[in-house]
Amino acid sequence: MAIVLGGAGIxxxxxxxxxxxxxxxxxxxxxxxxxGRRETxxxxxxREQARLFRVPYDELGLRVVLxxxxxxxxxxxxxxxxxxxxxxxxxxxxxxxxx
Length: 99
Hints:
Layout lengths: L1 H4 L6 H10 L4 H7 L5 H8 L14 H16 L8 H15 L1
Helix pairs in contact: 3-4
């Protein structure tokens, strides 16, 4: 949740972690973020500790998709182990981000 809702500067390592957490292939993640090329995701995750975008504004679209995926794959999962407080915190933070 901290990565998805965190400040600007998502790294390749963080994106790889989230892709695996969401149980998505590189191709599925590329489709979800509208890139259409698995190679784009592969290039991003290969950057490890480097920020994916130089300008935080360029990261907004990716963040919206990651928030949506987190909600669908984690919060709404029957196996979700987040407390009701954390679910509520996520909902408020996601709404504020989108707003």
